[in-house]
Give the backbone structure.
Amino acid sequence: MDLHFSQDDQDFRARAREWLTANVPTATRPAHGPASAQFDRDWQRKMYDHGWAGVSWPKAFGGLGLSGLQQVIWYEELARARAPHYINTTYIALMHAGPTLIARGTDEQKAFHLSRILSGESLWCQGFSEPNAGSDLASLKTRGVVDGDHIVVTGAKMWTTDAQHADFQELLIRTDANSERHKGLTWLICDMTSPGIDVKPIRTMLQDEHVNMVFYDEVRIPITNVVGEINKGWSTALATLSFERGLGFIGDQLELYERVCRAIDLAERTRLDDGRFAIEDDGIAQRLASIKADTIAIRSMTLADIAETDRTGEPGPKGSMMKLMVTGTHKALSEVVSEILGWSFLEFDGDRTNHPWTYDYLWSWVFSISGGTSEIQREITADRILGLPKARI
Amino acid sequence: MYLAPDGDEIEIANAAADFLADALAIERLHGADAADLKAPLRQLLGEMGWFALAVPEAMGGSGLSSVEHALFFREAGRQCAPVDLLAQCLAANAISDADLRKSVIAGEIGIALMVKDGKHHRVFGADDASYALLVSPDEARLYAMAGIATTPRPALDPANSIRLVQDLPDPIETASGGSVWQLGQLGTAAMLVGIAEAALDLIVEYAKIRETFGRKIGSWQAVRHPCADMAMRVEAARSELWYAATALKEGRSDAAIHLDAAKHMANLAAQANTDSNIQLHGGIGVTDEHHAHLLLKHAMVLSRLFGSKRGLLSRLLHARLED
């Protein structure tokens, strides 16, 4: 065991810190609408122009080709510099679509899309979940019929984050009408400007309209947009999801420590309704300290996992336990802050900038449901880590 | 940067696991008179050098580090090893008198662990122990048991006997500084991680064979999901243990914070996992013949040693990590 960062890694951290300190946007990101997407594109473009785009992507495809450990360093420095949160309208393009195309795309697909993703020119959204296919993704029904050199898509997708801003979509559909479950699916690149697509926002408990339903009425998509093989899209989809369950939430894992330190600062200057500072309340102080220990351990879990992944070359199944731990800690922190802030916690205008703690509290359910619910993460852990007898199909 | 056992570390952990599973197997605790570290075993452990892994070679030890110390005590925890095993090891690191240290390392004389209890003290360990070690975050004191009157008390945990001490003479030696405390924190955290792992292993094994309603219980989500939570707690506590052990080895300025965090995470993992293990076993889990209660009771002792919840959390609240 060894905690020393190599000279290369230390130099990388120093370069990243210097650049971020000088270049992180000083303006506040707009909370909603086209201006929020433009803000994300501009920040991505700036990183791209200065050679900081695509930290996890191989060099051959325009990325930085960083080791897992250097990605940890990058995300730590982003958090330290208070950079715009990396889960924004560029997230699906950079963390899902790009890596999937690199692994499974054709040369033409790579040539067209990858640099557009890195530069922030193309934003993507995800079209996997449906009204009747969420955790049980393999029960999806949106169908595609081959017609000449096109696939004609009809159906509906659900929970599509940022569909209103996206240029393209990773779309998982059923192309074999007689197939069941994991068979007969196809992974397609869908141009969001195609005729027949209708995006309907879903207002959430956060009072925002970031997620959408997307309807497809005989949308014609060229067969050349298939990623992987027709009717073998499940394999491509698993590749897509593995990027998210590998390092996709690494930034949140590392940012939590900073966030709990901010909550402790808050408790030191906020008075409870009995006049004491919140930090003087034993219950609040103990919970904050315990959450802080969780976040310290989360960083160690991340480093232990990265060490293994860098050595074996592929992400293991531990990402599921990590997501459970991170979402649970996030929620516990939100709950204790709700007590520290008292009545003022109940003020909320839907803008994260104005009411960050209330926003994060509401977001804790988004976090523990999206990207695989906590229940699904426990199932994956029971199957793949513990080898318990299968419960599902 | 590599945060998992590697190379020689793995070999030492495996050797410790094999030795302890043979010499100090948890099964012993189902028999009579199983408490404490008995003289013959103490001498065998001494001959094999297990008490002095972290003691420098010039002082008669193996010259290894806090990392090997943690790996050894994790295996000891899995077998619910008595706390005098830890006391013996800490004394080997604390004692300045060369002759005395040599006989402690060799296991020729026994060391018990003393803790403060209000105005009084309690001693965990064999009644033939020659000395008792009392460790605080600032110093370690060694007392000769010969001059101390003790009253035996019935012990919840069969791994150790408990004796009450009314009046304490002056210590025969005092080692100032926090290094013994830190090795004690690391050793107890490691044992608690071992207990949390052992509890998880027991229920996973059982869930694969026990059937209810015509199915293996490991296929019911009511069992699978708490098992997944147990695995998560083990992963968190074990990762933080590795970090703390390595930070101590490398002399990092935030090692003390990581030791507090490691002990806290290990306390939580062991308490929650030994609890879930009993519950998920059902009726068999509350029987005396099962190991489940042994893990719970030993975790209750270890979670109070070298930092209990209140003290750990008050230090962690304002601690800042190194970059």
About this structure: DSSP finds ten helices and nine strands in chain B. The first helix of chain B runs from residue 8 to 23.
